[in-house]
Amino acid sequence: MFTIVKLQATNSTNTYLKEWAKKCVLKNATVVIATIQNNGRGQQGETWQSEAGKNLTFSLLYRFKKLALNEQFYLNCAISLALYDSLVPFVKDKLSIKWPNDIMSDHQKIGGILIENTVKSGLITQSVIGIGLNVNQLQFSNNLPNASSLKLVCNQDFNLEVMLQNILKALVDKFEHIESKDFINLRASYLKRLYKKGIFSNYSDGNQIFKGKICDVNLDGSLLLELENGELKSFINKSISYL
User: Fold this and answer.
1) How far is the C-alpha of 241 from the C-alpha of 234, rounded, in Å?
2) Inter-residue long-range contacts of 115-118, CB under 8 Å, 24+ positions, other chains counted
3) The pTM of the whole model exceeds 0.85
4) 131 near 125, Cβ under 8 Å?
5) Angle formed by the axes of helices 160-179 and 183-192, to 10°?
6) From CA 224, how far away is CA 236, in angstroms rounded?
7) What are the pLDDT digits (tens) for 11-63?
8) Which of 7, 19, 152, 219 has the fewest Cβ atoms surrounding its Cβ within 10 A?
C-alpha cells in the first residue's frame, strides 16, 4: 500500500513531501523518511530535534475519499491512536496521548505529530502527516528536559525498519475507521488514553497559573477544562501549557 522513499538528509520531511507534491501527482500513501532531518518541524513552528540514525522521522501523504474540514479532529485522533497502538506492546501502562497529539511515557515525551491539510470546498483533499518518534537516542538537549526515547524507557534497542512498518500497519487500521466514518469509536479511544484526563493539574495561559481538570476535547479540537470554581472553559492549541 505504501510507497516508501528514503532520504539521507533533508530539512523537513513534511516540507519535502509538500514541495514534491506540487511538482507532480504522487501516489496516495507516499512516505518520505529521512536519516537526518536538519530542521524538523513540530506544532505551530516549533522545532523537532533528532539525532541522526537513532530515531524515526518521516512524513506520509494521504488522500481520504471524503473527509470534511469539520471532521479533522478525528484525523488527529486516528493518527495519535495509531502511534499509541504501535508502541503500547513495549511501553504498556506508561503510555498516553497528550493533547493534542504528543505521545507520552509517564511525564516524558517520546513522539510528536504534525498534520498539514490541504482544503478545497470544505473537504480535506490531502493530508501530509509528519511523525517524529524518539527510538534509540540516549541524550537530549537541556532545552528538552521532558524528552525521552523508547530505549531509555524500555532499556532495549529497537529496529527502526520494524518500528516503521508497525506504525504504518496501525495507520492503515485507523484510516479504515476514518473512511467508514467510525468517529464514535475513534473519539472514545482517544479520550480514554488522554494524558491527565480527569485529574486536577496546573496549567498556564501565559498570564497566570491555574488548576484545571480535562473533561473532554470538543469537536473543533479545543480542550475542555473544568476549573477549580466549577467553570467549564475551552482552550485552543498553544493557548495553554501543562506545568
Assistant:
1) 13
2) 115/72, 115/75, 115/76, 115/79, 116/14, 116/18, 117/69, 117/72, 117/75
3) yes
4) no
5) 130
6) 9
7) 999 999 999 999 999 999 999 999 988 765 555 445 556 788 899 999 999 99
8) 19
Three-state SS at 200:
strand
* Angstrom distance (rounded) from CA 170 to CA 191: 18
Cα 153–Cα 132–Cα 103 angle in degrees, nearest 5: 50
Q: Which three cell numbers stand for residue 112?
A: 510528536
Residue with cell 472514545: 188
Alpha helices per DSSP H over the chain: 13-23, 72-91, 150-154, 160-179, 183-192
Which domains, from first to last, does the chain contain? 3-192 (3.30.930.10), 200-242 (2.30.30.100)
Q: What is the pLDDT of residue 97?
A: 98
The alpha carbon dihedral of 191, 67, 120, 172 has a sign of positive
